[in-house]
Amino acid sequence: MVPGHGTGAAHGGEHLFELIGARAASVDIPLMLDGIDLGEHSPLAQAQQLAADAWGARRTWFLTNGASQANRTAAISVRGLGERVLVQRSMHSSFTDGVLLAGLVPAFVQPAIDSRHGIAHGLTPEALDAALSREAASGRPVASVYVVSPSYFGSTADVAGLAEVAHAHDAALIVDGAWGAHFGFHPGLPDSPARLGADLVVSSTHKLAGSLTQSAMLHLGDGPFAGRLESLVERAYSMTASTSMSSLLMGSLDETRRALVLGERRIGEALQASDALRDRLRADARFAVVSDGFEAFPDIVDVDRLRVPIDVSALGRSGHWVRSRLSAEHGIYVEMSTATAIVAVIGALTVPDVERVMSALDEVARAAFADPDPVASSDAFPELPEPGELRALPRDAYFGSSEVVAAEDAVGRTSADTLAAYPPGIPNLLPGEEITAETVAFLRAVAASPTGYVRGAVDAEVSGFRVVTA
Fold first, then answer.
1. Per-residue pLDDT averaged across 209-221, rounded?
2. What's 436's domain CATH number?
3. Same domain, 67 and 196
């Protein structure tokens, strides 16, 4: 039977034993086996229940196609509550995929934006209430809400307050907590969104929690929509999951759950190292800690201490340049960069070498001062444009007939594509939205910048747009 490598070096698996070792190859087994996943109380079912208990959920599903699968599953699920969804505009593109797949009708609410660093933060409960009231007053009440917390930079929203507001409007709350899978396992970290009232929580467990890459979880909260959502999620899950889910990925999720539950001391050591890195950065005039300025944003109620966003603008070089030098010359890889900053992430069970990181940053800073780039310090992006009117259902626009027209001719037409400028990565156009002159100007300005690009564009210069034909 499958797998073809036979789970043994003597049975055709020599190549895998050389690559990943005997133990990994021997436990790479298929599904539908007694003692593994068959039966109501199988080890797989027990592992998922233990995960639900650990994250404070009613039920948890193991995923082997990442948080992207969780986002698509969540979108398909909430379609069973109603067709309208209110979406934080900085949503992940995989949720946009889910909107298209499920035929949802989206409305949008803008998160707070740090325009200096190109960062999208989150929503206050008051902003969510205003957006939900706006939709209800127009005769288009929404059935579900999608928010992002924590952000890429570690800013954390008031999930409990957002859940209370959503439920008061009879809407389920989806929290894209992809970057917060480690939340709730140490008093120095924010709590798990499932415990705070979220109805569905997207959890990218491989990011900071420590499971194998591409493994993730979807948590169902125990709120007012749990009874209706459980069967909807189960059915949507069967549509998005592989029938050959990797036992290695699922096993890593169970081991990670166990490590986090038993790992408070280790997580504490990771937090101490992260705090030490922050202190060293604060003591160096060449750097600043971006999250030290988060108190200026009312949507931020907590910070993920395991994400260290570093302002490098004083070096006269872009964050992209700094990130590249760190990896190429020092073997230190940071998660992301913007024109002014880099973001270092620390695994919840990992203790980094702070001295090595600071030594590398010192050498990179010296190189930057020796060869400054005047363009980097003056690089700036225009203000984010407001979204155009939604003229057609995203699904209809995406699958309908389309053509590519010159940028100047696209104004007033309906987009067939999703376009997102980086930074900050918020989708500026969705299928079905009107293309405005402000959006065209913004996207082309970002594309022309040495530190920006537009994902989804038909070409790097955004000289054309794919539009719906009549």
1. 97
2. 3.90.100.10
3. yes
378 has a pLDDT exceeding 60: no
Q: Do 123 and 251 reside in the same domain of the chain?
A: yes
Tell me the average pLDDT of the chain.
92
- Asked whether the predicted pLDDT for residue 10 surpasses 70, the reply is yes
Residue 173: name the closest of 151, 196, 154, 191 by CA: 196
How many residues are given for the chain? 470
Give me the domain span that covers residue 407. 394-468
Q: Which two tokens stand for residue 381?
A: 């992006």
User: Is the same domain home to 72 and 207?
Assistant: yes
